[in-house]
Here is the input.
Amino acid sequence: MKGCLFGGLKIFAGLVVFVIGYIWLSFYDVHVRYRLTVEVQDADQIKAGSSVVEASYSIQPDWLWAGPSTHVRIVGYAPTVDLGENGLLFLTFVDATRTPDQERERNRQASCGFNDIGCLPFAAYHKPGVNRDFSQRKVALNELRRQSGPRDVPFAVLPKLVRFRDINDPHTLAVVSPDDLAASFGPGVELKRVILQLTDEPIAPQPENWPQWLRVKHQNTEFRGYEND
Here is the structure.
């Protein structure tokens, strides 16, 4: 009797270990780290802001009833360009608001089912950002991670660009068109390039030119992703 009980406990323990191991191997994130550099023509100067961020794409079993999510978890800080008296330009982590024509152009430039910030590396390296099921997502991410070198990001796929009319007042936020920076910053200001490059560099620290109210630590805003664990 004791032998049967002991044998049953061993089988149960083995099943528990198997289930835990299966879950451990089936639910994980694929991390893609990249440097984003925003270059702006300001009269006769090129001014730039750069940030290294890390995007985490979840991988789960295809049978999961909820299906893949389009949300991508970001660790890092929004690239910020200091335009002197004209203020700061931020490339945020929030999806841009688009007209139907702009949405069609975005889809033409990037075959990608993730949110804007998650699609950036796929758009830069001209790879499909598959989101239909987890096995296809894993293949697409493995292909993406084999890429190298700096690439220009099409403006049509960029997340929301913003500025503050008064940098000390968070209520003065205004959306900036990537195709018409002069409308927000004045004549002679133009978005020249947004460059993306996969990298193993450390995640960039918080920009030193951020105002104090924006430097307060909290997660998941349009200017910062999750804190670097």
Observations:
- The beta strands are 28-42, 45-59, 73-75, 80-82, 88-91, 151-152, 161-164, 173-176, 189-198.
- Helices lie at 2-26, 100-109, 116-124, 134-145, 182-185, 212-215.
- Confidence is low (pLDDT under 50) at residues 12-25.
